[in-house]
Amino acid sequence: MTTATAPEVTPGTTGERSSRARVAHLVQRQGALVILVFAAVAATVAFDSFGTQRNLTSIAVQASFLAVVALGMTFVIMGGGIDLSVGSVFALGGVLAAWGSQHGLLVALALPLAVCGAIGLVQGLVIARGGLPPFIVTLAGLLFARGLLLLITDEGSTTYKVPPGAAFREIAQGKLLGLNYTVWVVIVLFLLGGLVLHRTSYGSTTLAVGGQEDAAQLMGLPVMRSKVIAYVTSSLLAALGGIMIASYTSSGVTILGVGMELEVISAVVLGGTLLTGGAGTVLGTLVGVLLLQVIKNIINQVGSLNSNWQAVVSGVILLVVVTAQQWLARVERR
Amino acid sequence: MTTTATPPTRAEAETRRRRGLDLDWVRTNGVYVALALLFLLNVVWTNNFLTERTLLLQLIQVTPVVIVALGMALVIGTEGIDLSVGAVMALAAALIPLYVGYGAAMAILIAVLVGFVTGSLAGSMVAVVGVQPIVATLGIMVAGRGVANLLGGEIKTIREPGIVSLGSESLLGVPYVVLIAAVIAALVWFAARRTTYGRQLVAIGGNKRAAELAGLPVKRVVITTYVVAGVLAAIAGVLLAARSQASDPTKLGQLMELSAITAVVIGGTPLSGGQVRIIGTIAGALLMQLIFATLVFHNIPDSTAQMAQAVIVIAAVYVQMGRRRSTS
Amino acid sequence: MTDPTITVTEPRTATVLETAGVTKSFGGVHALRGVDFSLAEGEVHALVGENGAGKSTLIKVLTGVHRPDGGEVRYRGGRVDFAQPAAAQRAGISTIYQEVNLVPLLSVARNIYLGREPRRYGLIDVPTMERDARELVERLGVHIDVREDLGRLGLGAQQMVALARAMSVDSRVVIMDEPTSSLEAREVATLFDVSRSLRDQGVGLVFVSHRLDELWQLCDRVTVLRDGRDVHTGRMDGLTRTGLVSHMLGRDAGELARDGATEFGESHLQGREPVLSVAGIDARNTLRGVGLTVRPGEVLGLGGLLGSGRSETVKAIYGALPTQAGEVIVDGRPVHRNSVRHALRSGVALLSEDRKAEGIIPDLSVRDNIALAVLPRMSRMGIVSESRIDKLVETFMGKLRIKASSPRQLVRELSGGNQQKVLIARWLCTEPRVFLLDEPTRGIDVGAKAEVQSLIDELAEQGLAVVLISSEMDELVEGADRIVVLRDGAVEAELDGADLTSSALLAALAGDIAQADAAAQEEDR
Fold first, then answer.
1. Span C15-257: which CATH code?
2. Cβ contact (<8 Å) for C155 and A12?
3. DSSP code of residue C336
């Protein structure tokens, strides 16, 4: 093997990526942002009422409930899982908060977080330790949370009200610098989420687990712990979303959150997170949430349109975006 | 140089297979045992359980799940998933009152055609574009439910005699809906076991790249599978509308995707694809139906029933998974 | 066959990792039956054996994946019982697997430091991490951007990153399980350099490879396993190739030496018109105007280093690799470009090099795997005829001596060699005119290897046109009637008749035609 001593060693790197591939990569990750900007600009031009501060604030507040839940889902999906229970947990959290608000602010906050956190913990343990598909486990979680909600509301017939003047109302109705507290909560949580994902070993473990679970296991990373934490976080944030909406509407509405998991998953995927896990950004998720909210808002602006158009349009957008992502990924690979 | 068999490998495989056989027995038959036990339990504990009326009612109620789950089993066999089935049911049902003026047959044909269209769309997204099944069918689910609501509006009652009789009449004591489900089950079983399509389907689910390189028509098989799932969902929607003599685009078929997936998994088909168990799927659907009915018989409130169902689903899947892990 | 440039290092006496009488069984099957193995500091220790001899089980015991049933594992003088791989790793035992076990979607730097990232104020210090990673990979002589996603690198570079990770944890023991199977020759050279420098720093290395030549290049000692026992331990330099193989097989050395290292017979070329002719194949980034012809009964060897375009060429012929230009003609009829199905119908078959990912369908039976490609032909109006399949499968299982408990046994339960035979049977069912074989003997045990080699011979004898790719030079030189050598996606040379020697092939692989001619003349003399 004397001739095998090679002149230089540059083991099979893919070499320089073409500029086309770089653009494709960018568009693939930021496609939702492009559509968001486009939609916002178009709406501002088309409807006088869209660009008003009042309307934009309303979009931000409406989006904040979804955003909080979507942040938790982002961690779950990046870790290679999925959480279908968020809609139910969201509703349960809201009902528990409204009930708890009769007994003071602390109960209104602690009770939903404790109960929903426990649901998340059980789901996480069953998924991580038992090795069950997240799909099925969180589907059962959806049923369970919904059942629990019905149980504490006399089979759905009781709607708890937040007492007038309760401090609990301030959570979503109070404002700082003209923005509702919920919007600030979202900003803080997303900054924190980004930091956790990209600058802590918990974050890298989550990405590693989502990208290649076997490898993460062999590297001795705390795979189970990262999964459990993801599901607990998801349930806690779903509960927080519920608390926020209970504060906003001053009541525990029992019928909320049906189909919310799908909206949340759409937002995360629109934001460029791979549904198979291992890659994505929390900022993308925020963009995805805003995009869905802007679309809803536009549909409301067009007075003649039935609100069912929201579902049609967001479904179609999801399909178009994933098709585009797929196509772009193909361009990038070349 | 002749080969000597490498003894440890072969012996190892041998025991693994023997152990696998025992586990396989439980795995494939666990659902039947559970079904039989629950049935016996009801015979003993539930009043008026063993009557023709009660049993027929259970069968009638389970038909939509069975029909949808059969399509789902095929899709899962390709390593896919179809979340759009519930929305497709609603969409198909919503079309019945709109086209019933052209006659029952025409309305049903159009409704079923919708399943064909959504199935083709889902299949093409998955097979041609390469979108993950869960995302493609999620989009169709959201959009499909929206379109159903747009077209259907409020709950509409259906009075057309042809459709009403489809949902309420019987042949030789067996309700039409049950008969239709039985025929569909037989056809799907035959397709999965005895046709090139069925064989190719499990091969694709087992190793797609290898199937491609073996010259299998991967795209065609995958698209066909989603079309079948869509058409079956549409048929289930039509039957449900016919039975309730109404179409409610918001409620009809809600959470059906989840019931169908549960039936398939409990019936022993792994979500990882490469296997299709038709009889197991039917038994899985029957088991879930019977569990729920048992709770209703004993006046357990809806809330508790749902929570119980959640626990049962986890337990059942856990048992399946536990066995699967030890075989691999 | 021993390499003349053996590095003679005195094995230091200190034992770093050893097993004493380790046993392990799975459901009554004894995978290890009392293995004594010892690894000294500062040595490279080869671990060899046929498939099923217990190599992988032993490695898994050493690295904490499995716990031994009996006997004990001692590490740095004390008895250890690792509960999981992470524990072994923390103690300083790193493993580099055949299939790289890293995370493709994360950057190189992240992969090296996953779980041990440098921190500042409790958060990961990315600049420091990337700087350290850069220094580390450069010490390995590899030039890659550590911020690049790992998945964008070639397999060889990924392997180096795995090694960098092992180095970064200051391992005392590095276990390399088939690390070279996907590397180019020059990457192998780098890997060996790095391994030697680790050895010189006192690290103990365990090296597993199917490529026997590599053992003499790198290893100081060898332990041979057979049927779960250690049957031989000794220095590499006292051992001949035949001696080693006879330890592995437990057979007489003289019997093995009888006819070379492979089972190929003589040429049986039938001087007819080419059945396959390929011209001007271009594929983006991989192939540039590749052309070749094969006559019936001919075995055409396709030589080249990894990345030279060998596998890409056969995939392009088979329609499984998108091409931008080119012509493939089988039996005088053109084959549609980029269509596997048309290639198959035209009588081309491809045995892919990646048996697991592109070959077997693990959860289907032997029978269904064999019949897979011919299902439409075994059916009437879309309905499968079971009896016709049974007959076909029975024929091929007998012909190829496939060892399975029954045709219904799942293919994933078979040994690598038998899986390979199942795949060959799958393709022979299609009655091909041209058979493209990409590394047909990779990763299968010595016995099955010989069987596959003589089978290839038989097929050519029956008039099939065969294209053979092999990384093993002996296999290529002895098996092929003619060799086309590829380099950087283009045909570099063609070796024929008297030129068909190992030294000429080596020279051609290195890209030096003049040297190839010289070598050929040397052989003639």
1. 3.40.50.300
2. yes
3. P
